[in-house]
From TrEMBL:
Source domain of life: Bacteria
Organism: Lacticaseibacillus jixianensis
Identification of the protein by name: Monovalent cation:proton antiporter family protein
Taxonomic path: Bacteria, Bacillati, Bacillota, Bacilli, Lactobacillales
Residues spanning the membrane: 57-79, 91-112, 118-141, 153-172, 184-201, 222-248, 268-287, 299-322, 328-348, 360-383
Keyword list, A-Z: Antiport, Ion transport, Membrane, Transmembrane, Transmembrane helix, Transport
Compartmental location: Membrane
Keyword Transmembrane set for record: yes
Family per similarity comment: Belongs to the monovalent cation:proton antiporter 2 (CPA2) transporter (TC 2.A.37) family.
One Pfam family hit: TrkA_N
InterPro entries registered for this protein in UniProt: Cation/H_exchanger_TM, Na+/solute_symporter_sf, NAD(P)-bd_dom_sf, RCK_C, RCK_C_sf, RCK_N
Principal place of residence: membrane
Amino acid sequence: MQSLSLLVVLFAALLTPLLMAKFNIHSLPTAVAEIIVGIILGNSLLGWVTSNPVLEELRTLGVIVLIFLSGMEIDFSLFRPQKQAGSKIGVAPLAFLSYGSIAFMALAAAWVLDLLGLYHHIVFAAIIFATVALGVVIAALKEKELLSKPFGQTVLLLAALGEVLPLIALTVYQNLNGTSSRSVWLLLLIFVAAIFLLHRFRKPYQWFADIDKSTTQLDIRLAFFLIVTLVTVAESVGAENILGAFLAGMVMKLLKPREETEDKLTSIGYGFFIPIFFIMTGANMNLPAMFKDPASLALIPVLLIAFYAAKALLVPLLLMRFRKHNALAGMLLTSTTITLVIPALSIGKSLGIISSTQSAAFTLAAVITCIASPILFNTFYVAEKDDIKKTRVHIIGANLMTVPIVQQLTRGLYEVRLYTDDPVKFKTYNSEAPVTLLTDVTEPTLQQAGVFDADIIVLAHFDEDKNFAVAELALAAKVPRIIARFDAKNATDSRYDELAAQGVEVYNTFETNIAMLRSLIETPSTLKILQDTTAGIFEIVVNNRRFAGLEVKNLPYVNDITISQIFRGDHFIAPHGDTQLHLGDHIIFSGDKAQIGRMRAEFEKVN
């Protein structure tokens, strides 16, 4: 019977997404569909799936892997101070302020529940009401390609807080109210263990990528080692295993795994363990028993109202930065909750503070939010006008070569500034292009002028000593790309090679002219493309995850362009129709200049 129940669960896990695709069910999260399937197959209806030790072990592994993957979804860059758009409040302050309102309203909703005599454990109920389903929120934001925009970043950080803080609060609550005699201060040991593992494996992990092969899969072995280690530490200090799993996910994320590693872990989790967890959650519910209890039945609409009421203050807070429809959409999306609710209810049962029928009522209310909230979000969200972020190019050195470049680049997706410290050249070229006159090219002057606040710095000064000095300053300022001109390099001087080793792109006008003349002789059509007013050779970077994994033959615009090379990592790849794109690939192609703006906007959107 154990094998038969497992077979039914695995077949249901396989069939559920197929049926959703067959009937075009896109608004319902797969996790919710799996819970509904579990309800049909389990105790509530057909009774084909019954709980047994094997399924319960797999169910436990499912929730651990799910919480681990949730920890890997945390975008730590959102916690760093960010530049504000004008006078608008920043993403991080708005998200923290918003989550403070959720915590307050969750306590208020739990207190009202206590006043009504429906549930009396206020803190426990408040923790559940304050949770946000990070995975569902990320899926919804990805679908609309909002993760790179301020709205998406705010909602994402809010959802991350809605998973991290309730998890910590739940662990402390369980430790204080459980039968364990361990001190709550022992919980700090799990954080110490997480920090130790992070520092211990930060350098070796980069080495793993060089020696890894298909029969070892060192990145996956490390991931499960982290999970088991931190889960063991968590249980040893009296904490819940999901806290250890979540911290393991955060440690793994901070190790900066490759895209392939994240894909493999996601495949293992959502391909096997996690569907079992959700299906068994539905199978263990007993809806007939709950429907026989009028008090529990009446609890469902009240809990549903409480889940939404806990997020009600988000609307006026999000209005501080976003449009009215989008503020409402953000509130509705963050009302989605399921991931942490189910483990929390298991803890509540172990503490004896929630009955099976009450647990089923909480679960059903959470399932309803997962069904309704994404649909309502898609209904109310109004797309903002796309603010295409222009590439900021700062050029130092005004001359006959740089002025035409400024004139041409400003017509495209580039924000170009030209600087010179020569008053004569300033007077000569200021009428041809906007030029900023610098008193000198020392660090204080360059910092004050904002020269290093750029995506690309081009050092085109005739004085190579100045180019070298500014290149070193730009490296210290961590400018993403630095292009430097050195026409008369001294073969005995190694400083040019040192700059190149640090990523500075060194060019020589004489060598460039030779290359162009050779190109004109050997491949005259290439030079014609470069000089053509309608066609050109371009390079775009795949930053949009929507295109990662797509084959070249399935790309948009593929019939209008000719892809010659794909630069990946540190080598070139000759593309074929079935070549899959990876995140960070540089696509080199020829095509119509009129389309490059739209293509760059789509492919280079950070999503």
